[in-house]
Specification:
Blueprint lengths: L2 H6 L2 H21 L6 H22 L2 H6 L1 H14 L13 E2 L5 E2 L1 H20 L10 H19 L4 H18 L3 H21 L3 H11 L10 H13 L10 H4 L11 H8 L1 H25 L3 H25 L17 H19 L8
Antiparallel strand pairs: 1-2
Helix pairs in contact: 2-13, 2-14, 2-16, 3-16, 5-6, 5-7, 6-7, 6-8, 6-15, 6-16, 7-8, 8-15, 11-13, 13-14, 14-15, 15-16
């Protein structure tokens, strides 16, 4: 690797992700003892598979990688269509079952390629005049590019992943110089449409999640069960935790799914407040560094990709931790690097590698 690139790379981002992975593996080890540590072992394998992916994505100039993004965008749109014809798992058609123990979730990997393709489109729109981003025709093009995979993901249905796309797109447009009037109009549209969507669009199970979020005790043995057990687990951990393999809610099977959605509850119960706070701090550092990469990227393309990736990590952190504590509705969004999931882990490390790639080639600040 070029010495300048190696020196400039924001290694703190990678360090944070490795520490989060280590904490996640401890939690997975504890949460999977009754299944022979199956998911714990597979998570290690997925990490090993991620290593060459990290190296390749980091070493190849991101400008060259982005040139392939239209091709990958098309592939993942096709996969998002194909996955709708699979058998539902837990009520959602989000996975391709490769073997009995191995599955692939295209919406996870689609995130990074959609961000890269969208960034390249914004750069092309702004090639002659940066204010072109505020032209209605150009905004419609951007919304269509994001709207196609977004709509397909909503059809699965996977509202949590859909929100990731929305948050990242908003941040990218904001950094690109979107006029405040569009932000105000969009905010008003959302405020008006939310009650209409709730009444006429959301399926019953989604409405139930919102109602349970507002009051878990309306169905303590049904829809509200998971969040009640999660809050009990986090509260029981206190400062130092109950100890690995000693958590009541974790080991007695009250938490579900404890290896994915509620892995933070396992950490809270068995490792306590100190490690829980450490997880939050690591994410804050990672997201802050990602924003710094966006500010110092050598060109607009790198800036837009970096801020889009920051949006991915920001939403996942807030939503997953928020839902385990009863502060946000349950959406099934995993905790990056901590929750079990091969597709998620590889995607997240691709994001980290892309941030290292961009930071290694940075030169200037384009926004404050």
């Amino acid at each position: 690797m070029n010495k300048r690139i190696f020196k400039n790379a924001e290694w703190a981002i990678l360090i944070c992700s490795i520490i989060l992975l280590a904490i996640g593996l401890v939690a997975l080890f504890s949460a999977t003892q009754e299944t022979g540590y199956s998911e714990f072992r597979k998570q290690i394998i997925w990490f090993i598979i991620s290593i060459p992916v990290i190296i390749i994505v980091m070493l190849v100039d991101y400008n060259a990688i982005v040139k392939l993004s239209p091709f990958f965008y098309g592939i993942f749109v096709a996969l998002l269509i194909a996955v709708l014809f699979t058998e539902p798992i837990n009520g959602a058609r989000s996975w391709f079952e490769i073997t009995e123990t191995l599955s692939f979730q295209p919406s996870e990997l689609a995130k990074i390629f959609v961000i890269m393709f969208l960034a390249s489109i914004i750069v092309k729109i702004q090639s002659k005049n940066k204010n072109n981003i505020n032209k209605i025709s150009r905004l419609l093009l951007i919304l269509i590019i994001v709207g196609i995979p977004l709509g397909l993901i909503i059809m699965q249905p996977d509202y949590g992943t859909a929100m990731v796309f929305i948050v990242s797109t908003i941040l990218m447009l904001f950094v690109a110089g979107l006029d405040k009037k569009y932000i105000i109009v969009a905010t008003l549209i959302i405020l008006v449409s939310v009650p209409l969507v709730y009444m006429y669009v959301l399926p019953d199970h989604a409405k139930t999640r919102i109602e349970v979020f507002l009051n878990p005790n309306i169905d303590p043995r049904g829809a509200g069960y998971n969040i009640i057990q999660s809050k009990l687990a986090i509260g029981a951990g206190k400062l130092l935790g109950m100890g690995v393999l000693r958590g009541n809610q974790t080991q007695l099977g009250y938490l579900y799914p404890k290896t994915t959605d509620f892995i933070f509850s396992v950490i809270g119960e068995e490792l306590g407040f100190i490690f829980s706070a450490m997880v939050v701090i690591l994410y804050v550092v990672m997201i802050t560094k990602a924003i710094k990469v966006a500010k110092t990227a050598k060109n607009d393309l790198g800036s837009y990709i970096a801020i889009g990736i920051a949006g991915i990590f920001l939403f996942h952190m807030l939503e997953n931790i928020g839902m385990t504590m009863g502060l946000l509705p349950i959406t099934g969004v995993p905790l990056p690097f901590v929750s079990y999931g091969g597709s998620s882990l590889i995607t997240n490390f691709m994001c980290i590698a892309m941030l290292l790639n961009i930071s290694g080639r940075r030169q200037k600040t384009i926004f404050i």
